[in-house]
Design goal:
Layout: E1 16-25, E2 28-38, E3 43-47, H1 54-62, E4 69-74, E5 77-79, H2 84-89, E6 92-95, H3 107-113, H4 124-136, H5 153-166, E7 171-175, H6 183-198, E8 203-208, H7 211-217, E9 220-225, E10 228-234, H8 240-248, E11 267-277, E12 283-293, E13 297-301, H9 308-315, E14 323-328, E15 331-332, H10 337-343, E16 345-348, H11 352-355, H12 363-367, E17 378-379, E18 383-384, H13 386-399, H14 416-428, E19 435-439, H15 447-462, E20 466-471, H16 474-480, E21 483-488, E22 491-497, H17 503-510
Helix pairs in contact: 8-17, 14-15
Length: about 525
């Protein structure tokens, strides 16, 4: 059987309209009456903070979510999009944040695999002829015979886009496509796509947090804030200040929390020239300098993917630094378990069930991960005293209001908020705590859990604990931090005491401008 693949479609793309799109998850309003129009042959930016509703909107467009209400119009015709296959049939394709190609297969095999057909016999001679013809008309060049595992990140991202062009998608939705690329790679990819848009071959909807990308590559922009449409318009008629105002809003003032006055400021955490790489070997951050003092909450704001996750992992001993020095209490610190115990370093990581717990172990066992080899929970640093472990866990369950059937309940049976309370109890209960590193501690939690965690962090600060709080929630940082930094593309782009912080400038820096 002979199979062929047509070259990339060069007809004008259709117009996409989203009308009054609303999506509720129970009582959570993720999206409310959002409208968006993607004109044929235009590059449209979708801008907003983390949690603004951008991903929810495009998942409704792609058919991953069934909207609570709202309509999708293609060339003014109503279309029900109930699955990504339905979206493909009306010419919409999406390039996701994470690569979806099969690493062990070649570029050619991945392209053929991406088709929505059920052919069981492949004529590879004919396929290669068609693929070479497709590549000749494509904006990118990727070696068809290379296994995907051998491609650099920029080439992998190009392949993800090529798959959609190969599938004849005329409307491309790009979900943070530059988060895995170097700045030069990002400019190359978006620049080449911009040429395709200007030639009338494609329309592109670019999900981004970065004002620079919006200003450099897009024709129009739609801004979401907390699930609502905050504004839109032609980019040529808007300034960065206009978009920052839409994205952040006006009512972004620090709320009062019960903070005790700190008379003595002694550096606890000192970071000098620290650098580290991402998993793929690309530089994640650095060199950066940082200091956190006793009784101080230093907040690090930033859009996901700017190096803050890797920074936390280095400080928590989960990722090696490539250069630089970390000191705690004036002493060199390598983030080993003995050093963390000696210097009183504790952590509340992002996704605690994956990064700070053993899911199949009980609540009591997880609470003892810091102390199981020390008296009274161990004899001679060898024999576990199970009664002491259970008694300590029961005391922490009561003190931190952890809702669990018993200390013996496997921790993965608990809700997200109670998993977080369990980890918080373990990390904050030690009288020796000197430094707390917290990363997105309230992500996905309800208001009651958020208030409890915020109070616990401030209480630790009031006891003289130095706190490094890394969060993608700007409101959380405005509420809690004594000093705020912004990390952008792996470097600190802003540093200010909270009393002098400029929220608009923070927004500009977060968006990489």
């Amino acid at each position: 059987m002979t199979t062929t693949a047509a070259p990339a479609v060069k007809t004008a793309p259709p117009e996409l309209k989203v009308v009054n799109m609303t999506k509720h998850f129970g009582s959570l309003v993720a999206l409310q009456d959002v409208n968006l129009a993607l004109k044929p042959g235009t590059f449209h930016g979708l801008l907003g903070e983390n949690g603004a509703g951008k991903s929810t909107l495009v998942k409704c467009i792609m058919g991953f979510y069934t909207p609570t209400s709202g309509q999708i119009m293609i060339d003014d015709q109503l279309h029900a999009v109930d699955s990504p296959k339905d979206a493909h049939e009306v010419g919409i394709g999406m390039v996701y944040q994470h690569f979806t190609s099969v690493p062990a297969m070649t570029v050619a095999e991945n392209l053929v695999l991406s088709r929505y057909d059920h052919r069981q016999i492949i004529n590879w001679a004919a396929e290669y002829d068609a693929l070479h013809g497709f590549m000749d008309q494509s904006p990118f060049r990727v070696d068809l015979d290379l296994p995907v595992a051998q491609l650099a990140a920029g080439q992998k991202q190009k392949l993800e886009i090529l798959k959609q062009l190969y599938l004849k998608s005329r409307i491309l939705i790009l979900d943070e496509p530059t988060s895995v690329l170097t700045p030069d790679e990002a400019d190359e990819v978006l620049g080449l796509l911009r040429q395709e848009v200007q030639a009338g071959h494609l329309s592109v909807l670019l999900i981004t947090h970065k004002f620079r990308e919006v200003m450099a590559f897009t024709d129009e922009v739609t801004v979401l804030r907390k699930g609502h449409l905050a504004g839109n318009g032609p980019v040529k008629d808007l300034t960065v200040a206009d978009m920052a105002h839409m994205m952040l809003g006006e009512e972004r003032q620090p709320k009062d929390v019960a903070k005790a006055e700190q008379t003595e400021r002694v550096p606890v955490l000192e970071v000098h020239g620290l650098c580290a790489n991402k998993d793929n070997g690309v530089v994640a951050f650095g060199p950066v300098d940082l200091a956190v003092h006793t009784g101080e909450i230093v907040g690090i704001a930033g859009v996901s993917g700017n190096g803050q996750r890797e920074l936390v992992e280095v400080l928590a001993g989960q990722r090696p630094a490539t250069q630089g020095e970390v000191r705690v209490n004036g002493e060199p610190y390598g983030a080993t378990r003995p050093e963390m115990a000696r210097y009183g370093v504790y952590a509340l990581p992002e996704e605690p069930l994956r990064n700070a717990c053993v899911p199949g172990m009980s609540v009591a066992e997880n609470m003892a991960l810091r102390t199981f080899d020390r008296p009274p929970q161990a004899k001679w640093n060898l024999w576990l005293v199970l009664k002491a472990i259970r008694q300590t866990a029961q005391e922490l369950i009561t003190a931190f209001s952890v809702k669990t059937p018993s200390p013996e309940t496997p921790i993965h049976h608990l809700s997200g908020g109670n998993v977080q309370r369990t980890v918080l109890a373990r990390e904050l209960s030690s009288p020796d705590i000197k430094l707390l590193i917290a990363a997105n501690p309230c992500f996905g939690l309800d208001f009651k859990a958020v208030d409890f965690i915020h109070s616990s962090i401030v209480d630790a600060r009031n006891r003289g604990v130095a706190v490094l709080l890394v969060s993608e929630d700007l409101d959380e940082l405005l509420a809690l931090a004594d000093r705020i930094l912004v990390i952008s593309e792996g470097h600190f782009a802003y540093d200010s005491p909270m009393a002098e912080a400029d929220v608009k400038e923070i927004g500009h820096r977060m968006a990489g401008h």
